[in-house]
């Protein structure tokens, strides 16, 4: 995986990216096929009548790789408000990319709770939130101090969410040994549908 500045320097110099820049990140299938003939992907086809937004989906994994590496480095830093604020900011940055009303409502409730206190105050116990698993699971992860005040704020967010939506989100707390204790499952597709029906 490349770094952000290398990606910007290297790929914005080649013709494809110059073309994309001229088109505000959009390239027609016809232009692409005319210029590059093929995209070497046996699973998908290029529709010549379709305009493709190329830059955003290309940019996302590069920026996300940077955020993940920065997050990992920050986890090894000395515990402080600065560390937690930086971790929270990285979480909020990703949340800006993946958006859905229910998740946004929860993330915004965390932001409101966080910013209702002075940023220098010791009362600030929640620092960030984001969806997890690409949004497939409908789970929002919140980062905060391990203290009673954080728990109280999470309960308040849960109650405010329920008041607004009628649904009370389940709160997962702490961690577990996960796969280290549970192990893993092997899921195999049966060789024929007849076996599956028997």
What does this 3D model show about the protein?
By secondary structure, the chain is mostly helical. It has nine helices and four strands; from the N terminus they run ααβαβαααββααα. It has helices at 4-11, 15-22, 29-36, 55-75, 81-97, 101-115, 148-165, 179-182, 193-197; strands at residues 26-28, 51-53, 126-131, 140-144. Strands 1-2 form a two-stranded antiparallel sheet. A two-stranded antiparallel sheet has the order 3-4. Strand 3 and strand 4 (140-144) form a beta hairpin. Helix 4 runs antiparallel to helix 5 and helix 6 crosses helix 7 (148-165). 14% of the residues are buried. This is GHMP kinase C-terminal domain-containing protein.
Instruction: Record the strand order, biggest sheet.
Output: 1-2
Q: What amount of the residues lies in strands? A: 5-15%
Mean pLDDT across residues: 78
Helix content: 40-55%
Sheet/helix structural class = mainly alpha
Total number of β-strand segments? 4
Order of helices and strands: HHEHEHHHEEHHH
The residue ranges in which pLDDT falls below 50 over 5 or more consecutive positions are none
Helix tally equals 9
Shape: extended
> How many strands, what sense, and barrel or not for the largest sheet?
2 strands, antiparallel
Gyration radius from CA atoms, angstroms: 22 Å
Distance between the termini: 46 Å
Give me the oligomer status: single chain
């Amino acid at each position: 995986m490349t770094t952000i500045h290398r990606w910007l320097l290297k790929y914005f110099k080649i013709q494809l990216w110059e073309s994309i820049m001229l088109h505000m990140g959009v390239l027609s299938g016809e232009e692409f096929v005319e210029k590059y003939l093929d995209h070497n992907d046996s699973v998908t086809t290029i529709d010549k009548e379709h305009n493709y937004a190329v830059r955003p989906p290309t940019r996302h994994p590069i920026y996300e790789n940077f955020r993940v590496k920065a997050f990992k480095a920050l986890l090894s830093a000395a515990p402080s408000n600065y560390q937690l604020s930086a971790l929270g900011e990285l979480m909020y940055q990703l949340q800006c990319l993946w958006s859905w009303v229910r998740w946004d409502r929860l993330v915004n409730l965390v932001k409101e709770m966080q910013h209702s206190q002075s940023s220098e105050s010791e009362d600030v116990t929640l620092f960030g939130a984001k969806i997890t698993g690409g949004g497939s699971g409908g789970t929002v992860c919140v980062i905060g101090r391990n203290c009673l005040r954080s728990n109280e704020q999470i309960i308040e967010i849960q109650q405010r969410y329920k008041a607004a939506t009628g649904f009370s989100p389940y709160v997962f707390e702490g961690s577990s040994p996960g796969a280290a204790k549970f192990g893993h499952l092997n899921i195999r597709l049966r060789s024929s549908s007849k076996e599956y029906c028997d």
